[in-house]
C-alpha cells in the first residue's frame, strides 16, 4: 500500500511540474517556433476558445486579446455570423446564425435580464464581441441605459458603463473597437441630435459633435470609414420620416449631410440596403415575400434578410446574393422563427 501511494504521489508531482513548466514556458507550444505556434492558435474555431484558454495563462491572454482577432481576420480565419434580436412568444431574445454551417444557436441570457433582453434594445459588434445597448425594461417598460458585452471567446456576458443619456430607437454602428450611437429620443419622446462614442476595451464614453438636426427612429450603418445615420424624424413631426441622411467621417469626427439619400416617409429601421455607388434602397421592395417588417444583416458577399409577405404573416428567411438579385429561402428551426427586431454582423 505504501509503495502504491508513493507511486501516486510521484505521478501527481510530475503532473504538477509539467503544468508549471507549460505555464512558465515562453513558447506558445513547447518545441515549436513562436510563429508556428501562433499560426496554430489563429486557426482555432471560436467555439473551442473557452476550453483552449484553460491550457495556460498565456493562451488565455492571447485568445482574449484584440491582437489575435486582428491576426485571425488578416489571415482570413474569421467568419461572418449574424446576431439577431428576435421577438417570440412575447419575449425578446438574441440568436446567432452561421451562414457557412447553417447552424442557428441561442446566445445565453444576460444575467440582469434572465427572461429576455430589454425591449427595443440596439445591438452592434466590435472585434468579435456583441454589444447590447439601451431598450426598455421588460417588466416596467421604463427606458434603460444598460450596456452589455458578449465575448464569444469566453462565451460570457460582461456589463459595460451605462450610456450617458437615456435614448430609445437610436442609430448604432461599430468601427475598429468603437461603437457610435446617434439620434433616437429621450424619456420624454424628444428627438435627439446628439452622438456618443463607446470604446469597448476602455469602457469609456466620449461625446461627439452633434448632427445638424434631430433624428428619431433613424437607422445606423457603417459604410467604409463613414457612419451613416439614415432618415428619422423631428420632435415636431412625429412619424414624418425624412429623405436625408447624415454621414460622419470616422477618421475626423466631422458630419456632412446627404439630401435625398432615402425614400421620404419610409421607416428605415433595419431595412436599409447599400447598392452600387453607395446608393441606399429599401429591402422590402426587392421581393414580395419580405414586403412587411423587412430586416437585413450584411454578411460579406451576401445578406441575411427576413420579413413577411403581409401584416401578421409568418417570417421568411433568405440568403441573398449581391444587391437583392437572387433570394434563396432557408429553413429555420421553429424556436428561431420569430419577428426580427434588429440585427448586426460580426467577425468571429
From TrEMBL:
InterPro entries: F-box-like_dom_sf, Kelch-typ_b-propeller, Kelch_1, KMD1-4. Transmembrane segments: none annotated. It holds the Pfam family Kelch_1. CDD domains: F-box_AtAFR-like. It comes from the Eukaryota. GO terms for biological process: negative regulation of cytokinin-activated signaling pathway; regulation of phenylpropanoid metabolic process. PANTHER family: F-BOX DOMAIN-CONTAINING PROTEIN, OS02G0208700 PROTEIN. This is Uncharacterized protein. It comes from Gossypium darwinii.
Amino acid at each position: 500500500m505504501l509503495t502504491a501511494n508513493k507511486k501516486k504521489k510521484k505521478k501527481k508531482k510530475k503532473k504538477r511540474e509539467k503544468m508549471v513548466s507549460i505555464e512558465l514556458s515562453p513558447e506558445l507550444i513547447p518545441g515549436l517556433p513562436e510563429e508556428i505556434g501562433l499560426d496554430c492558435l489563429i486557426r482555432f474555431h471560436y467555439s473551442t476558445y473557452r476550453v483552449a484558454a484553460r491550457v495556460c495563462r498565456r493562451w488565455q491572454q492571447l485568445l482574449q486579446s484584440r491582437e489575435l482577432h486582428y491576426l485571425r481576420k488578416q489571415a482570413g480565419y474569421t467568419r461572418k455570423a449574424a446576431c439577431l434580436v428576435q421577438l417570440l412568444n412575447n419575449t425578446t431574445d438574441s440568436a446567432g446564425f452561421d451562414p457557412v454551417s447553417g447552424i442557428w444557436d441561442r446566445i445565453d441570457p444576460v444575467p440582469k435580464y434572465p427572461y429576455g433582453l430589454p425591449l427595443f434594445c440596439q445591438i452592434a459588434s466590435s472585434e468579435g464581441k456583441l454589444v447590447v445597448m439601451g431598450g426598455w425594461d421588460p417588466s416596467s417598460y421604463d427606458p434603460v441605459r444598460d450596456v452589455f458585452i458578449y465575448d464569444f471567446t469566453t462565451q460570457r456576458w460582461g456589463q459595460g458603463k451605462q450610456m450617458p443619456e437615456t435614448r430609445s430607437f437610436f442609430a448604432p454602428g461599430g468601427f475598429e473597437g468603437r461603437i457610435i450611437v446617434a439620434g433616437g429620443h429621450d424619456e420624454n419622446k424628444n428627438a435627439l441630435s446628439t452622438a456618443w462614442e463607446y470604446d469597448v476595451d476602455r469602457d469609456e464614453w466620449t461625446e461627439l459633435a452633434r448632427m445638424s438636426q434631430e433624428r428619431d427612429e433613424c437607422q445606423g450603418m457603417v459604410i467604409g470609414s463613414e457612419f451613416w445615420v439614415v432618415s428619422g424624424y423631428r420632435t415636431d413631426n412625429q412619424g414624418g420620416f425624412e429623405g436625408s441622411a447624415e454621414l460622419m467621417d470616422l477618421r475626423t469626427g466631422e458630419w456632412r449631410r446627404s439630401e435625398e439619400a432615402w425614400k421620404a416617409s419610409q421607416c428605415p429601421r433595419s431595412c436599409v440596403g447599400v447598392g452600387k455607388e453607395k446608393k441606399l434602397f429599401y429591402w422590402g421592395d426587392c421581393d414580395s415575400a419580405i414586403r412587411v417588417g423587412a430586416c437585413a444583416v450584411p454578411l460579406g458577399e451576401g445578406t441575411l434578410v427576413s420579413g413577411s409577405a403581409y401584416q401578421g404573416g409568418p417570417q421568411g428567411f433568405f440568403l441573398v446574393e449581391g444587391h437583392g438579385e437572387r433570394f434563396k429561402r432557408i429553413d429555420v428551426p421553429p424556436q428561431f422563427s420569430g419577428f426580427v427586431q434588429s440585427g448586426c454582423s460580426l467577425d468571429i
